[in-house]
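Bench notes, bay 3.
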Amino acid sequence: MKEKIMLKENIGKMIESLKEEYTIFAPVNVEGNILFKEITSSEEIALEYFNSKVPPKEVLFPKVEILFEFKQVGDDDIEIIPPKLERKKTLIFGIRPCDAHSFQLMRMFFGFGEFKDELFLKKWDNTILMGMACTHPRSTCFCTSLQGHPFNKEDVDIFLVDLGKKYLVEGITEKGNEVLGNIKGLGHAKEEDLEKALELSNQAELAMKPLVNVGKLPDILNSNFDHPIWKEISDTCLSCGSCVFLCPTCHCFDVLDENDQYNKRGRRIRIWDTCQFKLYTQHTSGHNPRPTKVERCRNRILHKYCYYPNNYDLLGCVGCGRCIEYCPVNNDIREIIKRFTEIEEKKEKEEVYIAE
């Protein structure tokens, strides 16, 4: 399907035409914070926003999730009750390219290897992403340094560009074109609309300064595993977990059993957890392989820029900048990466000097 035009005043008609078949999530202003929430009316949508505070990963990977329920049957048997999944399809409206790419990383993690997370994967297969171009990147955004782009269309089913009073709409996948085929009132895009979108794309890209060449990062970080900089970084960290709970690609969780012994039933749940908390890696024996903040701060960065590339051949960061924007002590992951690359560059210059 070629590019179409949808007037902003027709967003309400689109929501009405889709809500019977889809459970729709969209950016909503909740007490000054943009969050992705289920909506029933276009009036709830925050159309003018930079990005949500909490990433939309919460839609498919909620903070608290029931894995299954169980109850005792007779004296010895236990009946397992699987979770009830939403029958309708899920549509996430207005997701930014960085967050859309994060779902690909989550899908890789939950679908990797022999034991797959069927709960996440079933929800993912039942989800449509209606992406929104990022026309005004924040000063904390750095997706272009991580092979991303504020106008990246690859990870969505439908792509929208805000042209003022209207959207340029493009179906990217077969699922996306099927959805657009059910939306009435779409007009044909003109050449001036396409030129305007291209101009906005170039402006958005130029607004973000290139960071560093991250291609060598896994080797650089590995070779500096015991560098004193890690201690310096961790000295200011509060271990609050803001960086990981607001990260669209972090997926650590804990599993708990809640027992109702009086009614002989219970449920197993998973909740968000983080490698930044001391108890996360503590063994039953009391031993903790990451006993101090040094190991925990280092693990977060190595996980994204070293372990993820080694395991999945993908960077584990999408450059959304939330960890920078909301860090209470202003730790900037871009500056940390820059410092390690500068260390390596200095080593290479010294080696060349010695060789000469």
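Next record in the batch:
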Amino acid sequence: MDGAWSAAAVRRAEAQLMAQLPPGTLMQRAAAGLATECALILKQRSPKGQSLKQGSLKRHGHDHRRSGVYGSTVIVLAGPGDNGGDALFAAARLARRGARVFAVPVMGERVHPVAAAALTKAGGRLVAAPPRHCDLLLDGVLGIGGRPGLPGRAIDQLAAIDADTIVAVDVPSGVDVDTGAVPASAVDADVTVAFGSRKPCHVLGRAALLVGRLVLVDIGLGPYLDPHPAVRVADEGDLAAWWHEPGPDDDKYTRGVVGVAAGSEQYPGAAVLATSGALAGPAGYVRYAGTAAEHVRRRHPEVVCTKEVKEAGRVQAWLAGPGFGTDEAALTELRHVLESPAPVVLDADALTLIGEYPSVLSQREAPVILTPHDREYERLYGSLPAEDRGAAAAALAKRLNCTVLLKGHHTVVASSDGEVWANPTGRPQLATAGSGDVLAGFMASLLASGMAGAKAAVAAAYMHGRAGGIAGADHRTVTASDVARALPRAVGETLSAVERPGRRR
């Protein structure tokens, strides 16, 4: 398990570590790791086309084709703080290897004096007007102590420079480090080299889209970090530890029975997609209850179908909501699902019904997972999620005493006790019709297999994201059916990547 730590938590850890080290050691560790990554980029880079995104700043168009540090052109946008110092010290290392380095102070003439001296000694130059083109641009404007938004001079320089690759130092300048919000202009990086740990902006909100490829540099901070990060991030080892694989004594019932109440005459596809997701999970038996039974049988003959929830028999987890409507009949079926002592995933139309009839949850004691997108969140909470999406998910989870999976390009999971998880595998391509039905069915299958509520939500989002990546590997567009078909491969690749005791590979 990994995590992301707030700026204050990182500052405390850095202070404790620096007290044990000679002055300047921590900055040199950061600079060395940053310079190493920059050298690798300069060796491996390829020219890119020009791009300038709204709300962020990134320019491309330089067509240098030389490879390696020697002879490359590097521009540093340097702020006055330690972040600028990290960038300048790293650039000094590149200058000593033959790079042409130009550093631009972006807040008057204020720069880290010792780092600036090291750069000029290595052959780099402090300039007011850098070359228009460069192989690599280092964003050292603002660090974890900076306020959101960029100073005007940084905005002007970023707009004027064509860079093959933009590397953010620790965080993309301009983002809100602790929430991931991007209220003003911010750097859109190709690579972010983070020191010591992830920060919330690496995995939350619109900021996570500006990080690019995240590289973590170990500077020795680990032992000094709070054991409880602001945001938790699951990895392959976590999912392997949580997963229940069938043993020699298991049968279809002991592996878990999942019930799916979804679909309607108007939206039969929701039933098909939800059962597709459930079948891709670890449960051994899928029961469908609804009016789209014929469509489900035709697509999935292994699914046992009934017309009503009361006829479905005993299950270990339920999914209710995708495409089953918001009329009185749907409300009755939702009440029947919630009367079950089994954990429940509520999605789509079920969330609309909860928003209209919140009392249906009031007597519920067994676990519930809600899976809203932003508009569904608004129906449940009364307002759209704040830009601090972790806090927004946690607030709804606390209000309704449930687990909340708040969908987005970087999905957030929050439990009622305030614990927040960010999904590292999300991608905007998953925002397609029916994708959430697949996710919800898969999540219910995890619950039926015995995985605990928040873990099931975290694992489902993780696998769903990986499946989206697999489905979209060779195509620009991804459909929900593509994601469902890719889920078994995503599960196999994720679990196979981890060695587990007693498991043959």
